[in-house]
Amino acid sequence: MGQFIGSGLGSYRGQRIVFRGLDFAVDGGGLLHLVGPNGSGKSTLLRVMAGLLPVIEGQISWDGVALAQDRDGHRARLLYVGHADAIKGALSAAENLQFWCAMAGGGDAWLGLERFGLAKMADLPARFLSAGQRRRLNLARLAAIPAALWLLDEPAASLDKASEEILEAEIRRHRAGGGSVVMASHGRDPADGERLDMGAFVGAALDLGDAVL
Amino acid sequence: MSPSKSPKSPMAALIARDIRLALRQGADSMMVIVFFVLVVVLFPLGVGPEPAILARVAAGVIWVAALLAAMLSMDRLYQSDHEDGSLELLVLSPLPLELQFLAKAAAHWLTTGLPLIIAAPLLGVFLNMRGEGFAVLLAALALGTPSLSLIGGVGAALSLGARRSGVLLSLLVLPLFIPVLIFGVSAVDASLIGLPFKAQLLVLGGLLLGAAALAPWAGAAALRQAAE
Questions:
Q1: Residues on chain B touching A82 (C-beta within 8 angstroms)
Q2: With contact defined as beta carbons under 8 Å apart, do A60 and B58 qualify?
Q3: Residue B1 pLDDT
Q4: Domain ranges across chain A
Q5: What pLDDT does residue A1 have?
Q6: What are the pLDDT digits (tens) for A65-105?
Q7: How far is A57 from chain B (nearest CA, A)?
Q8: Burial class (CB in 10 A: 0-12, 13-18, 19+), A64
Q9: Residue A157 DSSP SS3
């Protein structure tokens, strides 16, 4: 269950090729690290995987069903954590998370707050949270809302050591339950899971640049 | 906070969030109403206190001021969601984007259109509007202002990410408001001189239905584009 596969993927931003001929595969319970230097297309690939950017070349499928044929099902099964924390300062921490739970059609906001150590700040307006606490509130969606696929773009940015460990524990718990994770992790050497080196596709892209466009 | 509130439907949650944000950041909504009142109050100072002239232009002035006031609040509709990353998550959430567009338009109307309607009779008194016109003015505004929220929402979604989006938005949307303005004013004028006004109200209702059917598609397409 939960085979997430992409083959022959290519993406363009403006007139520039970000990557071409990229393949990936994540099984249920699997973890895929996207590594590579800045600008190597990690975020772009995650946005393509999420469906925010169209699949221009190649195909992405979930359990053999192409993404393009099941957009609604794909949105219902994924959680995406981007660079921005999507938090409204005028709402309390709990209200922010409850809103995203309601939008997802269900979820336990309280569980999310507790797991990420925000229970004490539940009623605090989110504008008083620090950068690390805002990031944790964004990540708390992972614990609060059940989803088969997590797409995380540099999730550990501005987290302290203890919070990083909470995140790692959540990822382990998610994988133990059969969930999949794709994660862009800035250069660091991942302890477990597969690696996809985006740097390898940068060179190829530059060589082909003029020939294609 | 109670640990688990009763689950809301996604659409209700989105409307409730936008209304809550508007109430907590009350300045935005209040500014729209104050702007509306000020523009109308400026007119007697400009055209002179002649009661007959004021009564003649009352309906038009109130409608134009309502259009401008609705525009004023429009550019914030998606701007903050776009800036803080909420828009990406909304696009990725299971609720169809077309319904989300309707929910945001409904919240916008409840926080700006409805207060405008409530303030309008008072302004009618300022402008010496005759009593017969009040009910029709309210009915016309009630049918017309939701169209403004819907059409304006498309403009707000299209102008996301553009520099000086407020100006661009006005240029895009104000021409589209013209039919609403024409029939809104003409309904009130007809009632004041004792002519039937039902047709104008029906056209306003038709415009609203048309906007409710078409605007969500256009708006959702523009939002997807903006989230890329």
A1: 85, 88-89
A2: no
A3: 43
A4: 4-212
A5: 67
A6: 998 888 889 999 999 999 999 999 999 999 999 999 999 98
A7: 16
A8: exposed
A9: coil
Residue B15, min C-alpha distance to chain A (Å) = 10
Cβ atoms of A145 and A101 closer than 8 Å: yes
**Contact at CB, B88 and A102, closer than 8 angstroms:** no
pLDDT tens-digit profile of B177-191? Answer: 999 999 999 999 999
Interface contact A102, partner B, CB < 8 A: yes
Helix axes of B132-158 and B198-227: crossing angle, nearest 10 degrees: 20
Give the closest-approach CA distance of A94 to chain B in angstroms.
8
Model's pTM, two decimal places?
Answer: 0.90
How much is the pLDDT for A189?
61
Is A90–B25 a contact, with Cβ atoms under 8 angstroms apart? yes
Q: Class for domain A4-212, per CATH?
A: alpha beta
Give the residue from chain B lying closest to A51, CA to CA.
B92
Distance of alpha carbon B108 from alpha carbon B96, whole angstroms? 19
Give chain A's end-to-end CA distance (angstroms, integer): 38
Nearest chain B residue to A80 by CA distance is B89
Q: Testing the interface with B: which of A13, A99, A110, A141 to mutate, by most B Cβ within 10 A?
A: A99
Q: Given CB atoms, is A103 within the 8 Å cutoff of chain B?
A: yes
* Residues comprising chain A, all counted: 213
**Residue B20 C-alpha, separation from nearest chain A C-alpha, in angstroms:** 8
Q: What is the pLDDT of residues B77-131, one digit of tens each?
A: 899 999 999 999 999 999 999 999 999 999 999 999 999 999 999 999 888 888 8
ipTM for this prediction: 0.89
Q: Is the pLDDT reported for residue A212 higher than 90?
A: no
Q: DSSP strand E in B100-187: where?
A: none
Closest CA to A144 of A100, A188, A178: A100
